[in-house]
Every structure is written in C-alpha cells, then in structure tokens.
Amino acid sequence: MAEETAIFAGGCFWCMVIPFDQQPGIRHIRSGYTGGTVPNPTYEAVSAHETGHTEAVKIWFDPTIISYAELIEIYWQVTDPTDAMGQFQDRGDNYRPVIFINSKEQFAIATKSKHALVDSGIFDGAPIVTEIETAGPFYEAEEYHQNFYQKDPVRYEMEHAQRQRFIDAHWHK
Predict the structure, then answer these.
(1) Span 125-132, mean pLDDT?
(2) 8-state DSSP, 26
(3) Region 15-40: what's the mean pLDDT?
(4) Do 141 and 31 form a contact (C-beta atoms < 8 A)?
(5) Where are the beta strands (DSSP E) in 52-122?
(6) Per-residue pLDDT averaged across 77-89, rounded?
(7) CA–CA separation, 112 vs 59, rounded Å?
(8) Which residues pair with 56 in a beta bridge?
(9) Catalytic residue numbers, as ranges
C-alpha cells in the first residue's frame, strides 16, 4: 500500500482539513504545528508567537489515487497566496501560507505549480508570497483541534465563511 505525506499551512488549521478530507485517496489528516524552534509547542504558546510555529495540516495520502500535484492545486484554491501575514480573519505569522516539502520531487512540483499560479494572473498581478520550505518536525495539535469541523460545525461554518467568499471571488470567476 503506497503512502506519502504532505504538510500545508494556510491559516487556521480548522479550515484546512475539510478540503482535503473529502478527497479520494486521503488516508488521514492531523492538525498541528511546524516550522518553529520549540519542541512540543502548545496552542497557547503558538498563538502568543512564542515558538515560531505555523498552524498546519499533515496529510497522509495514497499517491496512486491522488497525486501531490493534485493536493497542491487544492491548496491554492483554499488559501490566499498573496497574504504573507495570515489568512482571511486569521492574522499573524502563525497563520502564514507555507507549503512544507519533504522531497526534491515535492519541491519541483510545488515550485512549478507556484510559477504557474503567478503566470495565470488570477490574482491581478499581486505577488504570490506563499513560501516553499523544507518540512521539519510536525507536532500534533491538542485533540480538541482535530477534526474540528465535525466536532463544532456551527463554529467551523463561521470561521469558514470569509475564506469561502475569497475562494468564490478568485477561483469561480
């Protein structure tokens, strides 16, 4: 059974789960923290900007069913790649958009896709600021953050509404 992982940061990890969770070939998704300097960070420390971590999701997927390139395309469509200091209502470096790669192949795919997005003009010439960084340790978030959209659907919908307006404005023209 083939399995690979992908790690994406694009604002609050609550809203980053469902777009991937609904795809065939996705085996498992966990919300967590990565890209920082402190081992085993807590939500409170990350939110207080004490650790350098970014909220992210780690996705285990079957590449014979869904490719990394397909995951990258989904990623672009659920983030604002022009906002380096947060996503939508989520502000701060812990919400910055980052594609964390774990292989040369992932780097090549992510870079090619980012260049294609720049060339597309979808964002009216605004710079695409999403970073592509080498993945480091990924620390799973506290259990109450996992599968948040299922645990608290009303709050999830409130968080998701602003993101959806942006997606509709840019991707469904």
Answers:
(1) 92
(2) E
(3) 93
(4) yes
(5) 54-61, 86-87, 90-91, 98-101
(6) 82
(7) 21
(8) 32
(9) 12
